[in-house]
Structure formats: structure tokens, C-alpha cells
Amino acid sequence: MEIKSKLTRKDFLEFNKYVYYKKRIKRSIKISLFFVVLWLIILNFNRPFNFLLILVELIVFSLSWVILNFLIYKFSFIRISRMPDKNGEILGEKTYLLLEDGLKQVSESGESFIKWIGIKSLEENENYLFVFVDKIAAYVIPKKFFADTSELNEFISIVNSKIQK
């Protein structure tokens, strides 16, 4: 099976958002909770217990933390979208070939091959297939490049049958 696609900066950004929200947000929430609790302990150390004061501090600190994280991630995504070179290996036209022993990607600048045993998972969202070869590295295939849903489903079925689960 052969799929031809073209990866844009927008596609690259959507992949990074997917990885962050699907795989990294739990870690960010745990770190945030740790700092909220730590800050509350530091602020209220050697003071008599006052539930209302602690609640207000919790709300103020939590809102500040959410706003700060939102701004950091918003600017990070802007920076990430500018990272790949226009004429580099990540962006541009790609051809994916499902072979008996693995997945081959061919682009203008070269080709890569990964055996089925090297593919960790196949994940998808509304617009993309992500063939993960590591925790945060994947081949990104926009679904719009499949001729129809039967071709998409056939691709998914073949990849899922070949990868080690």
C-alpha cells in the first residue's frame, strides 16, 4: 500500500499539541499540584490555621499558575511551529509504503525505513494518523491524503496487525 502526503507547519504543530495534551499534560498537572501545595505550606507555616485564608491563597495561586502555564505553552507552540526548516526532512511531500517487513517513508531529501518491531503504536485524532516510533516521535500522516475511508481503514488495519502490542 502506498500513501502520498504533504506535511505542513500546521500539521507539525498539531502533532506537537497532540503529544502534549495526550501524553504530557498529566505530568504538568502533577508538577503544578506539587507547587501549589508547597506554596501553601510555605505561606502558612508558623501561622494559625485559617481555612478562608488558605482557600483564597489556593484560588489566587491556582489562577496565577493556570494563566502563566497557558502563556508559556501558547508561546512554546508558536516557537515549535517555526522549528522545522522549510526545506528540511520533516516538512514537505512524503510517500509512505507499507512493506512486508516494515514502513518506508520516501521524501525529496531521502528515505527512511523502520521495521514493524520498531513501531510502538498507531494513534489517531480527527485529522491525523500518528505512527509512533518512540514516546514523542512519530510519522504524521494527515487523513485528508487517503482516497477514502476504506483506504484509511485498510491502512490502520494493516499497521495494527503488524505492530507488536
Describe this structure in words.
- The chain has helices at residues 9-44, 51-81, 149-162, and strands at residues 2-7, 92-98, 102-107, 110-115, 121-124, 128-132, 138-142.
- The chain has 2 domains: 8-81, no CATH class; 92-162, PH-domain like (Roll), CATH 2.30.29.
- Helices cover 49% and strands 24% of the residues.
- Helix 1 (9-44) packs antiparallel against helix 2.
- It contains 3 helices and 7 strands.
- The strands form 2 sheets. A 4-stranded antiparallel β-sheet has the order 1-2-3-4. Strands 5-6-7 form a 3-stranded antiparallel β-sheet, with helices on both faces.
- A hairpin with a 3-residue loop joins strand 2 and strand 3.
- It has 165 residues and is an alpha+beta fold.
- The protein is elongated and about 70 Å long.
- The chain starts with a strand and ends with a helix.
Order of helices and strands: EHHEEEEEEH
Query: How many beta-strand segments?
Result: 7
Number of domains: 2
Q: What do the pLDDT scores average to?
A: 86
Largest sheet data: 4 strands, antiparallel
Radius of gyration, in Å, reads 22 Å
Outline: elongated
> Could you tell me how far the N terminus lies from the C terminus, measured between alpha carbons in angstroms?
22 Å
What is the beta-strand fraction?
15-25%
Low-confidence stretches: none
Class by alpha and beta content: alpha+beta
What share of residues is helical?
40-55%
> DSSP helix count?
3
Major sheet strand order: 1-2-3-4
